[in-house]
Write the structure tokens for this entry.
Amino acid sequence: MLLRRFCFCALCLLLFCGLPCHGSELSLRGVFVSTVSNLDFPSSPGLSSEEMKGELDSILQNARKAGLNSIFFQVRPCADALYPSSIFPYSRYLTGKQGQAPLDGFDPLAYLTEQAHEYGMEVHAWINPYRVTQGVQGETKEACLQTLAETHPARKDPSLVIFYNGELYFDPALPQVRQLVADGVQEILENYPVDGIHLDDYFYPGTDFGDNASYAQYGQGASLDDFRRSNVTQLISLLHDTIEKTNPQAQFGVSPFGIWANASQLEGGSGTAGTQSYFAHYADTRLWVQEGLLDYISPQLYWYRGQEGSDFTALLQWWENTVSGTQCQLVPALAAYKAMGGNSAAPWQGYEEILGQIDLLQNGSSQGLILFRMGSLSPMTAALGEVLTEPAPVSDEEPSEKEPEGEIPLKLSQPKDLTRTDCSSYYFCGISDPSQPLTINGQPVLSRGKDGSFGVLLSLEPGFNTFTLENGPHTLTCRLLRGLAASCWEKAAPLGDTYVSPGQQALLRLTARPGAAVTALFLGKSQPLSWQGEDYQASISLPQGKEDQVTRYGSPLYVIRRGNFVTAALASGGFYQTGKQLSLSFQVQTDLCDIYQSPDSSQGSTGILREGMTGPVSAISQGYAQVPGLGYLSLNDISLSTEEENREITTASVSSEKEETLVSFQSDGPLAADCTWEDGMLKVRFPGVSRGASLSGEQVARSLCQVEDGCLVYSFTLKDISPWGFYFEKTDQGATLHVRKKPTPEEGLSGVHILLDAGHGGNQEGAVGCDPSCAEKDVNLDLCQAVGEKLEEMGATVSYTREKDETLSPRQRFEQSFQEMPDLFLSFHYGSGAPDEDLSATGGFSACCQGELPQSLAQGICQSVESAGRAANPAQSDSLLYVCRQTHCPAILLENGCLTNPQEFGTITDPQNIDQTAQAIAQAVAASFASSSDR
């Protein structure tokens, strides 16, 4: 539990050692995952267990990317359950019918909790205590009851519920209702290792709630308002006691409506004028804090800073004062769902309001935050990740005052003030008044463009470095801290699940700065690690597992000591041992599954497999399965089994269609297959296949079949066909290779389909030019659309991955390309570089592709741009950039110079130059399709 402990083992160790523990500013960083109405999970009722696992895996991965460490999972949205319960029926949001178990008995809560804990993340079980139906809008109580499963507590005892506004709610006044809710909480805590129990703001649904009968029975002379508040407070008290009795390590928190009461209506309230939970929901949340009934409180501060009547900043201050002096932690809930235009108010256009609110939390007394909700995070994931995982450096100096925007001809694009780095030098670039000299710390800056853009690599001394830029009457100060990296460790191995063979040792490894004392807590022992030049390592033997099973040993926890500073790092992967009698195989669960050249996705993908393909696994390391002869597959994309794969290809034949040639390989089941073009031949690999029939067909010009590196490999050429692209399709009895032919337009580019991709977009700005207002995402779109217009004039059919400023992942771009099957894919970018690289000497137009097939076209584009007067570099055919790995058509990434090079910046962003470059690109494309030779 992140608010009560950093990690149980590490904390115990620290306490015994008497050393201080340093935590992050916001120790709990959570997100609500809503299941009601299938908002966040599952995406629709009736999904298979594998589909639900995939969605939960994505939730965890996206939360981690956003810098979050806690999932608030709605497990009981309508007095039903997303887990097997003896008290409540299965939720209809799981299967479409309340009370019906998921396929294969899949338990989402168990799976999510296990996976989250593997990542070192928390799961809090979020329940709605009183709501029984949602969206039924029945005309009578009986009609609503009939929509419930027969095992539902309200169906079995209708006296527990009240019919209100077309829906059913438990009556909060009934002692048996309070006990029912508490029993449900106890059931969760006894069966699942959740880190907490969470309630939202749904208490009494309205002030005209029809509870006259229970008021008459239990009111005992209190006013109706006080009676209702007492009922809710009794539930909170009972849940507190239940949690303390069942699992005292679990946290208990509530996220009420953000205004307790307005000061104008109740003494001690906030200076607001909005709905009040004290009166509207009968939730006396301030009392719960004062009485110690909660571990934390998460008021829903779903307003913007400065909002009239409900100012975020004022409410945050009120809540900080409320929890001050108590044992209750403040973990505000923020309205991520309103950002990026989710709300029409001007402050919510973009995500700066959310980031500003987070900044207030980080500089206040809050101990965390929770974002509502998961489905709203996608456009701002990267921005959140930067803010929530990198604490701001500390400086004794006050920031320099900035003049109003638009009045400064002197602007620094990079670095940002108070940047922290471990580099010995840093590249500065920006824009200045070209009519005035520019100096940095008194030294003239010589690398300047005609428009005043500048770039220079400056050396850094250890500690704070202050740079003063002077440009005529204008002055700008920038400070950098050169020292230790912001994080005292980088990688804790295993980074993903790793399988070792019996007798093989497990390697414990932590990548961190030298000079620390590092130990690993693993298998109940403390194992010291030694510095090995690049990281800390130790090898240990695992206990012998069963020969016919896969044995799980868990994840090591690393404790790092530097003097009096102690921190800990939990490996995101775990160790497993494969029994001697077992062989592992895989089945692809995600279509267009990437094949990587190493167990590290950052090293690039070299091909794809289709959903349902199967094959053998030779090893598993760092979360990747090694497939003999192919490469590595992410465990997130496949399922594993212990069934041995031993197949052969019984027939291999070629047939021709109008626009493509089909090469069919038949077996007794689906096959994993990959194809490349090497040395003028198609080369098809089948991992784990030991024998194969000869390739037959009139169109076969040359063919060879042999076993290489654990794969059956077919190498062949086809008569009168020079492939323009190819891709595999999985079949129930093998796999079929589609070899696409090059279009031959009768005039211009008529009948040619070209997909254009403007790189970055939305919250992914890409590189920033010398002028900080020039983001790569914008100029990418300018060049992309200019090329599109030229190609359409030549008769091409042009489509775009994006035509506006929106966020798209590389995966989404690739999927669109595969779905459309264009004849050519072009992606537009501008270059940048590492912060310690002198980018004033980097530039020129570039074209990148993967493999031999698109190389001729890529080189032709570079030559055409160069002929138009631009400096150009030779085409690169060995690129591992994500969008370049397409084989169904030529895929080329074009880089139109370097935005941070002052000698290029003004030219490559000039509209006239963009138009000339677009014309040169379009002419090269047209020339390629007019040519009879592909290479």
Q: What stands out?
A: Residues 593 and 609 are 5 Å apart (CA to CA). The first strand starts at residue 28 and ends at 33.
